[in-house]
Amino acid sequence: MATKKTTKAKSPTKAATKHPAAKKAKADNKLRLTSASPSFTVNDIEKSMAWYRDVLGFTVTERWEDGGKLLGAEMAAGDVSFMIGQDDWKKGRDRVKGVGVRLYCMTYQDIDTLAARIKANGGTLEGPRDTQWNTRELAVDDPDGYKITIAKETRKR
Asked: What is the value of pTM for the model shown?
């Protein structure tokens, strides 16, 4: 059985009942999400963890181990968390990952500054570029081919 080891305390999140849309959600019975945390299966958990931490600037908030073997981790950047888990190879060692998956992430940080930091830390990226949707963005591929676009609004819509 896997054990959960917390390496850094997480800040508490807002209780759903304090969210402004909570009362409306109860009234109309529609799904109203307040956050999402993607989970990626990776080929080399240590390599992926280092890439998210050292290249993008995520923080390791939790590690999941079993018998001293690292199985996965939660990586946080601001209010967003990504989960990464070591592939158990039950579906074969040649299983392709990342195909058809792109995450769009918004930030208030300067995209050009982020791009320079990513490059300085050994990352490769597309952009930065301005888009027709009033954003400036950059795009990266993680070690397993998952695509991540990081954007900042350049003008209020």
From this structure: 0.79
